[in-house]
């Protein structure tokens, strides 16, 4: 790369940062919710619930301790992970698994008017399997579930961003 090309590339990058360029929706100030406080009703403190709490706090939503204090109640109805055999080799050994992650939620206000009717977030990932790499594949499976939980949290925040009371 010549000196002139490097200088030109540096100048373009400098002008982009100087103009305040950023991706839309990449900062918490870009996300506006129709409510300010939320009660998160969940059967337990799972990794999904913890991630959702953290993300909502980051986006400026006040999480309250009682449903009576909240403008909106978000109820996590169920959360399930499953692993299914997708394909077998000729010798009967597993070659691929399908990992599934499903979260069911609903949101309503103090008058029990649905903002988000009971709905599911369903995610699937494929995991190739090899008996000789057992520890690596277990770690890969854990990472895939972690990524699916993070994706489910992001989808839930986007749905809450669009949520409005249904008449």
Structure at a glance:
With 167 residues, the protein is an alpha/beta fold.
Q: Could you outline the blueprint of secondary structure elements for this entry?
A:
Blueprint lengths: L2 H16 L18 E5 L5 H12 L3 E2 L8 E17 L5 E15 L5 E15 L5 H29 L5
Parallel strand pairs: 1-2, 1-3
Antiparallel strand pairs: 3-4, 4-5
Helix pairs in contact: 2-3
Going across the major beta sheet, what is the strand order?
2-1-3-4-5
Structural class: alpha/beta
Mean pLDDT score: 88
% residues in beta strands: 25-35%
Radius of gyration: 22 Å
Number of strands: 5
CATH architecture: 2-Layer Sandwich
The helix fraction, in percent, is 25-40%
**Poorly predicted tracts of residues:** none
In the CATH scheme, the class would be Alpha Beta
End-to-end Cα distance: 62 Å
Total domains: 1
The CATH topology corresponds to Double Stranded RNA Binding Domain
Tertiary shape = flat
Structural write-up:
- The protein is an alpha/beta fold.
- 34% of the residues lie in helices and 32% in strands.
- The chain contains three helices and five strands; from the N terminus they run αβαββββα.
- It has a five-stranded mixed sheet, with helices on one face.
- The protein is flat.
Key words describing this protein structure:
single chain; 167 residues; alpha/beta; Double Stranded RNA Binding Domain; five-stranded mixed sheet; 3 helices; 34% helix; flat
